[in-house]
Specification:
0% of the residues lie in helices and 52% in strands. By secondary structure, it is an all-beta fold.
């Protein structure tokens, strides 16, 4: 079993920055890819960014490329999402996930509880 815990959400003005953190613990946690998904009110959960188990490969949704950066501290099995130039459309609950690659909403077993990110215009 793997436990996933996020932190770092909050309220920020458009153009501002936030950093989210997520730690996975438990059996095989260090072997899993990890990533971020988000869900806005009335919308489906969508992919934001992911990083492989070793931290050597990353992927981003087109909507966040050039603004968000995902990184991984393998010693702590923790990932970070650095969000810059935030827009109101980035508002939502951000969920951290851990699973074997590829990370897909329908097959991910391990989710965090979610952290709210609100970007005001």
């Amino acid at each position: 079993q793997v436990q996933v815990e996020e932190s770092g959400g909050g309220l920020v003005q458009a153009g501002g920055s936030l950093r989210l953190s997520c730690t996975a613990s438990g059996s095989l946690a260090s072997s899993y890819a990890m990533g971020w998904f988000r869900q806005a009110p009335g919308k489906e959960r969508e992919f934001v960014a992911s990083i492989n188990f070793s931290g050597t490969s990353t992927a981003y949704a087109e909507s966040v490329k050039g603004r968000f950066t995902i990184s991984r501290d393998n010693a702590e099995n923790t990932i970070y999402l650095h969000m810059n130039s935030l827009k109101p459309e980035d508002t939502g609950v951000y969920y951290c996930a851990a699973e074997w690659e590829p990370l897909e909403v329908s097959t991910i077993r391990y989710w965090g509880q979610g952290t709210q990110v609100t970007v005001s215009s």
